[in-house]
Specification:
By secondary structure, the chain is an alpha+beta fold. The chain contains 3 helices and 3 strands; from the N terminus they run βαββαα.
Length: 92
């Protein structure tokens, strides 16, 4: 029986996106209670790549900017009101 490859999982959306940007594919696993994990086949330089992710000031500033933009976007958005347009038939 072949040995199953080791897996690495994270809930960190931004880390998962960073892995993906570096060519590392993943699957999404559901752990219940609306918790999602990104599951990767473990790879040799994982710790190096994670270190570069967390040590990069530019990446961390980018993540903070995304979170700030999302917070502002949803905080100031007026409620969406959908009005039903009814066509009125005129009788002559």
């Amino acid at each position: 029986m072949p040995k199953e490859a080791k897996k690495y999982k994270t809930k960190d959306f931004y880390l998962a996106a960073f892995f993906l940007a570096n060519g590392i594919e993943f699957e999404v696993a559901d752990a219940g209670n609306n918790t999602k994990y990104f599951v990767f086949t473990d790879f040799q330089d994982r710790d190096v790549l994670i270190g570069s992710f967390y040590k990069s000031d530019l990446i961390q500033k980018y993540i903070t900017a995304i979170k700030t933009a999302k917070r502002r976007m949803y905080a100031t958005a007026p409620p969406v009101v959908y009005e039903r347009e009814e066509k009125v038939r005129k009788i002559k």
